[in-house]
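Morning!

This is the sequence you dropped in the shared folder:
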Amino acid sequence: MGISSKPKAIEAALRESEQRLRWLASIIDFSDDAIVSKNLDGIIRSWNSGAERIFGYSASEAIGQPITLVIPQDRQSEEREILTRIRRGERIDHFETVRQHKHGSLIVVSLTVSPVKDANDKIVGASKIARDITEQKRNQELIVTLAREAEHRSKNLLANALATVNLSQSNSPEGLKQIIAGRIQALANVCSLFAETRWIGAELSAIARQELAPYSEKNGERTFIDGPQTMLEPDTAQAVAITLHELATNAAKYGALSTPNGQVHLGWSHGADGRLRLRWMETGGPVAQEPTRKGLGSRIIEQMIVQRKGKVRFDWRKGGLVCEIKLPV
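The structure's back. Tokens below.
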């Protein structure tokens, strides 16, 4: 009984070993990662389906070829260094590099390379696992770009807010509070438009509607907007939002919107020189008189527009104020 049971035990152990090998082969074959083996001369000995998907070569095309098949010309030296380290028995973990698809496109990969030994513990080759991290790296670069853009935009926004605060004056603390709140609200309004375009910018007509909405709602059809579709990048959009806020506030206090029959016409067009031409015209209000000294509103408008290499012209006519602005867009 002892003699006959020994072959059975050996047979059971062989079956178990074969099962483990099949499991291992199945895991390798169905892995999303490229799993490749090569000898110490860099010749490919095995090539799983993950390698086929990532690099575009079938197993029959790749096996027997040098691993440099998938290494760009300017990175061939990497393979020599990898094989040198493998011969020393070293393992290479999560080495980020670039490899090449069959059709020429470049792939960012994370490599893990380990020595392969024979029954006598002699190093005879290497196993290589390559994970395609192209999309991951692209997303990381996008996040970095967006973070830098957000930093730039937030600094500009804070600089504009600081400028409006520094230029704000009033005869009373409460008046100063209202002036600052109105200007900050104008910046907040335009920022809500940026969110809709992922900070690409804001449509000029949307900015105009936002700033003139309070006066349209209170006084009916007294504000008129006309102009072609124009997307303004964020810095310019903020300048225009503050400018329209200042003009509308002034019109409500002293200009066309301070009387029952006054009207505001806002129009814009694109000049032959590529500049945006914005025209604010008030009619039906009090006779406009040129101030003896420059007011805070006009100083803020000039600062916002001139900072963006634009020009501002105020014309105090009998019928009402006309403000013309030219801006590069």
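Headline: The chain has nine helices and twelve strands.

More detail when I'm at my desk.
O.
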